[in-house]
Design brief:
It is found in: Cell outer membrane. Residues 13-214 form the SusD-like N-terminal domain. This is SusD family protein. Residues 345-482 form the RagB/SusD domain. By secondary structure, the chain is mostly helical. Among the domains are: 32-185 and 456-481, Serine Threonine Protein Phosphatase 5, Tetratricopeptide repeat (Alpha Horseshoe), CATH 1.25.40; 189-263 and 353-418, Serine Threonine Protein Phosphatase 5, Tetratricopeptide repeat (Alpha Horseshoe), CATH 1.25.40.390. The protein has helices spanning 8-11, 32-43, 49-61, 73-80, 88-111, 124-147, 161-164, 171-184, 195-200, 204-217, 223-235, 281-284, 296-305, 308-314, 359-372, 376-389, 400-414, 421-427, 431-436, 467-472; strands at residues 66-69, 258-262, 291-294, 315-319, 335-339, 354-358, 441-442, 450-451. Strand 7 (441-442) and strand 8 (450-451) form a beta hairpin.
Amino acid sequence: MMMMTLGLSSCEKFLDNAPMSEATSGNAYRTASDLDAALVGAYQTFYTEYFIWEYFVVSDVRSDNAYAGGDADEIYQYDDLDISPLNSRILGTWQQLYNGISRANLVIGKATEVQDPALDVNNRRENLIAEAKFLRALFYYELVRQFREVPIVTAYAKINPEDANIKKSPELEVYNFIVKDLEDATILPATYSSSSLSQSKATKGAVYALLAKVWAQRPDRDYNKVLQYAEEVERLGYDLHSSFDELFDGTHYDNKESILLIQFKEGTNQSNWGPQMLLPSSLSGDDWRKYITPSKDLVKAFDDAGDHIRKDASILFDDADWSDEFWKPCPTAGQIPFAYKFRHASGWMSGDHIYILRFDDILLLKAEALNALGRSAEALTPLNKVRDRVDLPALDIQNKDALLRAILNERRLEFAFEGDRWYSLQRTGMLKSTMDNLKEYRLICGGNSTLMNYGMNDNRVWLPIPQSELNRNPNLVQNPGY
């Protein structure tokens, strides 16, 4: 297993950890090894709370997939679609992603300045820049699909104080910046010296996969581009792993489906604490209420599809002594569902990996693109390939709108608790209708139930800009509705 060898404390030696709507400065770098260490620092963003935790909360809990669970008021705000600009989780997302961008900027800027002959061997300089640009593009992609308009920060050197406070860029301008970075990164190799490295570092496959996702998500989406890049990924030899359940059992991460994943090592300072927050007492060893509780609507979606394979791989029903306002309102013994794609708590130090890009995502994007381009009959092939793996019958839907709904439902069942649902509904224009039509009842022990009213509107598609960032930067403007 390839693990990042530089700890977070070491990474912070060359990075200002301040909130990043302002440009920061970098220290002096003189050798190729210095730049390698700086690139490791950019990859360390994968080990922050955003990718371990917020990545799932911000999509699954906000959508129809999950309830907040737990006892954190700020996560309840996500569930209720009533998020305050003062929510510290929003600030954490903003800071951690911009710090990752700052680290990538440092590599990109310094790689053009360092005069070490080792950088001119085997395209080392160009590949360092390309990897950093991929990471920068990925971090901006996370920001733009959550906040819509965000500042584009490219500087790493000290700048004049009057230039430090950077305005938000329009959504499309941010996406264009992302595409340019990814196009520059297509020079990356398809593989490295081991499959583990090839799954944990930026590769040509990861670049093409992210380009497909970006062209599907941007407001001027271009499904010809989505199809182009999905087929580029296919040509690189990725394929579905034979067993859906094995993707998450902790022993089959080395599979031909994985394009990019975050690797963790159990019992170390680069372990994954997220599973402890999700798993029942029988697997976690503690007895407090867990988070990201699967929704009744999601369980029904699995059951309606007859999809027991993905349901059993994604959701575990187990005992819980606490009350749950959606499943079990009284604090008596009984079972509730738990998110189950991360299965090993290991005392807050799990070795469970996190998939960022998988080939099944690209197959379903290909189906979505073909359908959007009027080639619905062809779209059935990648869709049914995904269904066949979990022993579901092939679909034969000719109506374009009905097929899109089927593809989105397939994505829901395939990527539950993987940070996808909100964005799939968002880009296809189905977010408001889905949340408005959601019938969820908050239960009261010994009392009446209350129908949830999510009050979904266009403003709630996006997160608010953190209030502390507005206070720091007078050129930032709050998103509408907050």
